[in-house]
Structure formats: C-alpha cells, structure tokens
Amino acid sequence: MIRVRDLRVRYREGGRPVDAVRGVSFDVAPGECFGLVGESGSGKSTVLRALVGLASDWSGTMSVEGEPLGKSRSPRFHRRVQMVFQDPYGSLHPRHTVDQALSEPLLVHGLGRERDRRVVQGLADVGLEESFRFRYPHQLSGGQRQRVAIARALMLDPVLLLLDEPTSALDVSVQAEILNLLHRLRRERGLTLLLVGHNLAVVAHMARRLAVMQAGEIVETLTTAQLRAGTPTHPYTRCLLDAARISRRRG
Amino acid sequence: MGRFRAPGRGFWGGLAAVPVTVLGLLLVTFVIGRVIPVDPALGLVGDRASADALAAARTGLGLDLPLWRQFLAYLGAVARGDLGMSVLTGRPVLEDVARVFPATLELATLATVLGVGLGVPAGVVAAARRGTWIDHGLRVVGLLGYSVPVFWLGLMGLLLFYARLDWVPGPGRLDVLYEGLVEPRTGLLVVDALLAGEGEVARNALAHLILPASILGLFSVASIARMTRALMLDQLRQEYITTARLKGLSEARVLWGHALGNAAVPLLTVIVLSYASLLEGSVLTEIVFSWPGLGFYITNSLLNADMNAVLGGTLVVGAVFIGLNLLSDGLYRVLDPRTRPP
C-alpha cells in the first residue's frame, strides 16, 4: 500500500535548512496498521506531511497503491488518502458547521447529489447522532470534535488513513473511545492505517508493526509481539519502552 | 481563543452602554466650551459694548446660571437638535454640519472603497507569497503610504495630475461651470447629479473626487494591506487550512475562501474603524484640495473661535464613531458563530 525509500525532507527554519527526515524507508501492507513512534522533533509527522504533499523540499521515492508520488497530488489521491490531525479544534474550520465540514469534500469532488445521505451516514459511522449535523466545532466536546474530524476524513471513502497523534490532545478516557472507533472502522472498511504517535502504549495498542524514529531516522522496525516479548535491540526503543511502563504504573 | 477579539459582553451590553457614552461625550464638549477662554457674550456684543450690555447678553445666554443648570439646558437643546448658531456663518450649526458632512462622507467612502479594494488583495497576495519580492515590494509601497505626509502627497498629486498632465480637474468639489446645476438632496454630489439625470455633472464631481480620495485611500490601502497580511498569516498557520488542502480544494479556494473568510471577521473591525477615522474629516487633505468637508469646517471654526460650531462638529464626529463601533460589534456577532452562546 505504502512504499517509502530513502525519504529525506528538508525544512527552512529562519533561513537555516533543517534536515527533518534523513533517509527513511518502510513498507505498509494493505489493511495493515503501521505505527511510527518517536519523541517530538523526531520527524515522524514530517513523514506524513511529505506523503500527502505538504512538504516541498524532499528527495527519495514514495508510492501509494503502486503509484509513485511526485511534487503535487491529484484529486484522485485525495479521494484515496486522508489524514486526521492531533488537534481536532484547529483542524476544523471554525465558522463552518459539521454539515459544511463534511459536505465540502463531496462538493469539491463532484459528489454533491448524495450530500444529505452521506453526511448523515458519515456521522452515524463515527457514532454521532444526526442532531450534531448543524453544530459548530466550538459547541462540541474534544472527543466529539475528533469524531467529526474522522468522519470528515472518511467522507470520500479513502483506502488509506494517516493519523497524526489522533488522541494525544484528548482526555485519557476519550482516548480509548477514539482508538476503539478507529479499530472498528479499520475492521469494517478494510482501511490501511499509518499511525504516528509519541506514546508507545497507544501505538502498540493499534499497530501490528511499528518503526521507532529518532532524529529523523528509523532506528528499529519491529512487531508489537517482539516489543511485548521485550526483545527490542536498540537502546532508544528500550528507553521508550521503559518510559511507557513507568507512565502506565503511575497512571 | 485569545487570537480572536471577543466583542465585549455582547451586543446588547454594548447597546446599553451607548447612552452613557453619549452623555459622557456631551459632558466633555460642554466642559470644553466653558473652560476655554472665549466669551460667547463678548463675541455677540463686540468688545466696545458697555458693561451693562455685556451683562445683559450673558443673562440672555444663560451664562449667569450655575454650571449644572447650564449643562441641563445644553442637554435639552441638543435633544431638540439645537446645536446653537455659528458666529462665522450666521446659520444654525446643525444646518452647517448637514451641509459639510456629505462632502467628507463622499471622500471617506471612496477612500475606504479603494483601501479595501486594493489593500485586501495586496495583503492576501503578500501573505501567500511571504518572503518573496512581491511581499517585499508591497511592504515598501505600504511604508510609503504610512510615512509620506498627506499634504505633500496632495500637493505633488495636484502638480502632476492637474497642472502637468491635466488628467484630473483642480481643487474643489465641482468645476465652477457646473455649480448650482443640481439641487442638493443627499448632499453627495455624484449621487445628486445622477438622481437629477445630469450625467455630465456626476462625471465632473467624480473626477474632482478621484485624486483626493486616492491620496487619502493610500493610507487606508497601506494599513488595511498590513492588517490583512498579518491576519492571513495567522490563519494560514492553522490546521484547518491543511485540512482544506487535503480535501482537494484548489489553492485559490483555500486562500480566498477559507483563510480570507476567517481573517475577514477581525479585519472588518479594522476597516470600520479606519472608515470612522476618515469620517472625522481629514483636515490636511481637505485644506489642500479646498474640500468643504467636516474637517475643514471644524478647523476653520476653531481658528475663528466659533465655539458652537466646533462643539457641534465634535459631537457629530463622536456620534458617528459610536454608531460605527456598534455596527462593527453587531457584524462581528453575525459573522462569527463562536461569539454566540453555545
């Protein structure tokens, strides 16, 4: 589904070039949930941004569904690949109702005729009642907003969903709800998920395989079974694992 | 969200504050009128009049009463629409203001239209092309708009476009030839001429208007472009913009639809306040272009110690400001659902 080889992404920060991603390679199979873990600044979100065409200065090769990606993304790409962000409040248009946010992708891609049916269905799919349809983002709770953001991403029936820390802005109780929702949607729709996060426990809960990133490079790729068995070889992975264990014990 | 200015305690709270603000405005103008060392009675009888005549004039004007009774009398007069007589013109101040205000309104409106029409697109383009030569070029033009004195620009404009190139007519609102041809209805010459079906007069009035309005508008263009750029950059940083791009929207729709749509809400306040400050009358532009507007009128009255006219004019300016403020608060609530209760 996804194939990334030797991806390098460079940013310009205050005139100085910053190498955010330095030679990353990984594969994600159709229907799989693959995790990218690392602390903030490790370049994991930059990989997602490069995939959806938001990074301008990159080299290497990326392909989705066997099609190599160039500098710009086609309308077809946007129908096949969608993304959910960390902060649902910031990622929803503040003056658009839920209805407008969910309809816009349909209208842009010429699917306006089915608008009513698909908006209501989209809300139902993420466990929201029809009464939410004409509310504004500021009238929703954090969990409800993230459900709307997920519904928005699913409006065009994508095959691949990129998740950029989808639960880290939410309360712990709501985190589990959203993770279970994503789990169910993946099963029902056969979605492929690429999940980015800094919390090893959250990513391991969702993903079968994960890659650990540090300073723009993948230091280790392993399955969650290997992770649970305690066989990570890289010291940084051990460090993350220990941190997750401590936080779980305290939490 | 601290980034967005909340419109106070709501529209109705703002509406309730209006009478208090107006009363405060009246008190200030009244006090200025009494504190200033100009004796209206002396102005009336002349400085060679006898002491008896002066005292009689003072009694006639109610100046021997205690201050609070004078203030009440002033309030009563204002409520009746009586702002006193202008010593200079010999007419009621309200009549004078009604005559000069449309001239300023014409100028300020066209200047604001130019400011919005050029400033907003310039700001959007500058934000979208941040750091490129377009952005820097627009910044230099903006800096000129801010820093070049308006009277100098006005004189240079007249020299170039009137004296040398003869593209526009000279100072004043109309050529002498056309004066008195149309009956004033709204006071806005272009509108009146069009209502009367005098196309040629309307064209001439518009030609007279275009240079002073452009000079005045340059400052609006500069400030509106700068605010637009800042507000746009603020919006473009946010994730809903990324979401819009991922939905497959064209960059133009992301920029002019989503980002500008949200920047427009706070921008509106900036534009309304800039319009309000132009309506106070821009004295320098009006003097350079012999434009018989409110700023010209108030300044001229002040130089001739015509206090009734100065205070009446100030009162009108204050009322316009309060009204436009209220309007921008109301529009803010209409445009931004976040300011309404959840």
From TrEMBL, chain A:
Identify the EC number(s).
7.4.2.10
Name the SUPFAM superfamilies for this protein. Answer: P-loop containing nucleoside triphosphate hydrolases
Mention one GO molecular function: ATP binding
InterPro entries reported in the protein's UniProt record: AAA+_ATPase, ABC_transp_ATP-bind, ABC_transporter-like_ATP-bd, ABC_transporter-like_CS, P-loop_NTPase
Describe the reaction catalysed, as an equation. Answer: glutathione(out) + ATP + H2O = glutathione(in) + ADP + phosphate + H(+)
Main EC class the enzyme belongs to: translocase
Is Aminoacyl-tRNA synthetase there in the keyword field? Answer: no
Keywords from the named record? ATP-binding, Cell inner membrane, Cell membrane, Membrane, Nucleotide-binding, Translocase, Transport
User: Record's Pfam families?
Assistant: ABC_tran
For membrane topology, the record states: Peripheral membrane protein
One GO biological process from the UniProt record?
transmembrane transport
Asked whether the keyword Transferase is assigned, the reply is no
Q: Extract the SMART domains matched here.
A: AAA
Which residue numbers delimit the ABC transporter domain? Answer: 2-240
CC annotations in GO: plasma membrane
Write down the CDD domains for this protein, in alphabetical order.
ABC_NikE_OppD_transporters
Name the PROSITE patterns for this protein: ABC_TRANSPORTER_1, ABC_TRANSPORTER_2
Subcellular location per the Swiss-Prot or TrEMBL entry:
Cell inner membrane; Membrane
Primary localization class, coarse: membrane
Q: What is this protein's function?
A: Part of the ABC transporter complex GsiABCD involved in glutathione import. Responsible for energy coupling to the transport system.
- Report quaternary structure and partners: The complex is composed of two ATP-binding proteins (GsiA), two transmembrane proteins (GsiC and GsiD) and a solute-binding protein (GsiB).
Similarity comment: family membership: Belongs to the ABC transporter superfamily. Glutathione importer (TC 3.A.1.5.11) family.
Q: Specify the protein name.
A: Glutathione import ATP-binding protein GsiA
- Species whose genome carries this gene: Pararhodospirillum oryzae
UniProtKB/TrEMBL annotation, chain B:
Which GO CC annotations does the UniProt entry carry? plasma membrane
Show the GO MF annotations: dipeptide transmembrane transporter activity
The subcellular localization recorded is: Cell membrane
Per the record, the domain of life is Bacteria
How does the protein associate with the membrane?
Multi-pass membrane protein
Q: Which Pfam families match?
A: BPD_transp_1, BPD_transp_1_N
What's the source species for this entry?
Pararhodospirillum oryzae
Homology family: Belongs to the binding-protein-dependent transport system permease family.
Q: Which UniProt keywords apply?
A: Cell membrane, Membrane, Transmembrane, Transmembrane helix, Transport
Main location per UniProt? membrane
**Keyword Cell cycle carried by entry:** no
Provide the transmembrane region boundaries: 12-36, 107-128, 140-163, 205-225, 255-276, 309-328
Q: Which Gene3D superfamilies match?
A: MetI-like
Cytoplasm as a keyword? no
The ABC transmembrane type-1 domain covers 101-328
Instruction: State the InterPro entries in the record.
Output: BPD_transp_1_N, MetI-like, MetI-like_sf
What is this protein identified as?
ABC transporter permease
